[in-house]
Design a protein that fits this description.
Layout: E1 5-11, H1 16-22, H2 36-52, E2 56-66, E3 70-73, E4 77-83, E5 92-98, H3 101-113, E6 118-121, H4 130-139, E7 147-153, H5 155-158, H6 161-182, E8 185-190, H7 217-231, H8 235-249, H9 257-264, E9 273-280, E10 283-291
Helix pairs in contact: 3-6, 6-9, 7-8
Length: 357
């Protein structure tokens, strides 16, 4: 069985307004459109996923918030209605999804091995959060690819931001090892907005684009600063700047989705492809892609030798995927398998130094 691969990662923001603007049959409210620049950006995401042909989509959502531990969807089939608690007038979505439980169980097990409190969510009546549903719908509206959903543990909020990111780094390492050992071809979705300060009142017509603009000039400049660095491939600097960005811009990256995704990808120092940027009730939303197949870090779909099945029994430890020490997240202890080399990846030092503006 071939080893699995992470073929791409996407920043996939989840404003429910984008689903509302599209008017899919699964969503009850009807609109006159709106937010086209972001919805067109997701059309490019959909085309990329068609080309990449993944076996599974993994999504980390800040709106599946867990107070204790990191949770994984663990029911083979979930269906129901997801309602945005803030915007029920925009998002009442009937979903029906298939979960890759084998891969989720592997990732959950390896997260425990790295010292994280981790648990499988096995309630068959569980209502999937709107962040997970929105990012998955916008990326793959056919719902024909199995998914793995991960919760956002509250560690970045209870601990320091740096300590919380260290937990997300370990979660990413566990996810990476699970994907490799499962034989899956995987795409990652970071379900998060950049600057997250937002307006307090909604226009009478929610899709009135004359009312959409950045929350402030400062938030716009911070979003553009991070976007420019990502487009230039200055990812180590992005990670070093992240705690300051989170603090000033109230960025949703604080919930850990971005750090989890890059840890799972083994921290590639590569430029991302910006598919689009737009404001939704003042928040900054960037749709980004890191296609690892284009840089020789994953196998193109036309050269892939078929999907592997996750092992039924506990797998034997794999050798390191790549050399490199574990990242140092502030003052937190470093993790990464030690001499066994089970969890690879040389990560950034979060908040290590101030950057010139």
């Amino acid at each position: 069985m071939p080893k699995g691969e992470i073929v791409a990662g996407f920043i996939a923001p989840h404003p429910p307004h984008l689903v509302y603007g599209e008017n899919p049959p699964q969503n009850e409210p009807r609109s006159q459109g709106g937010w086209e620049q972001l919805r067109w950006a997701y059309e490019r995401v959909r085309a990329s996923i068609d080309r990449l042909k993944p076996d599974v989509l993994l999504v980390h959502s800040p709106h599946w918030n867990t107070q204790l531990g990191h949770h994984f969807l663990g029911v083979p089939h979930l269906s129901g209605k997801s309602v945005d608690p803030i915007f029920p007038n925009l998002f009442r979505y009937t979903y029906d999804l298939t979960v890759d439980v084998e891969l989720a169980e592997l990732a959950c097990r390896y997260a425990r091995e790295l010292g994280l409190v981790s648990k499988m969510m096995t309630n068959p009546r569980f209502r999937v959060d709107y962040g997970t549903i929105t990012s998955l719908h916008l990326a793959r509206p056919q719902w024909d690819i199995p998914v793995v959903g991960l919760s956002a543990n509250n560690s970045p909020y209870y601990l320091t931001t740096e300590e919380g990111f260290e937990e997300m780094d370990r979660l990413g390492k566990a996810t990476r090892r699970a994907i490799v050992e499962s034989g899956r071809r995987a795409v990652l979705l970071c379900s998060a907005t950049m600057s997250h300060h937002h307006f307090r009142e909604e226009p009478e017509l929610p899709e009135d684009m004359a009312q959409e603009h950045p929350y402030s000039m400062e938030m716009y400049q911070w979003d553009m600063r991070l976007i420019r660095m990502m487009r230039e491939g200055r990812m180590r600097e992005v990670h070093e700047l992240l705690p300051e960005f989170v603090d000033i811009a109230f960025a949703e990256f604080k919930a850990g989705s971005f750090t989890w995704m890059f840890s799972t990808m083994d921290y590639p120092e590569l430029p991302g492809e910006l598919h689009g940027f737009g404001n939704v009730i003042g928040t900054g939303n960037a749709v980004f892609e890191w296609d690892l197949t284009k840089h020789g870090l994953a196998t193109p779909a036309d050269q892939w030798h078929g999907r592997g099945a996750a092992p039924a029994a506990a797998p034997r430890p794999e050798p390191a995927l790549a050399g490199g020490a574990s990242p140092s997240w502030g003052s937190a202890p470093a993790y990464g398998g030690g001499s066994s080399g089970l969890f690879s990846g040389e990560g950034p030092s979060i908040g290590a130094r101030p950057l010139n503006r």
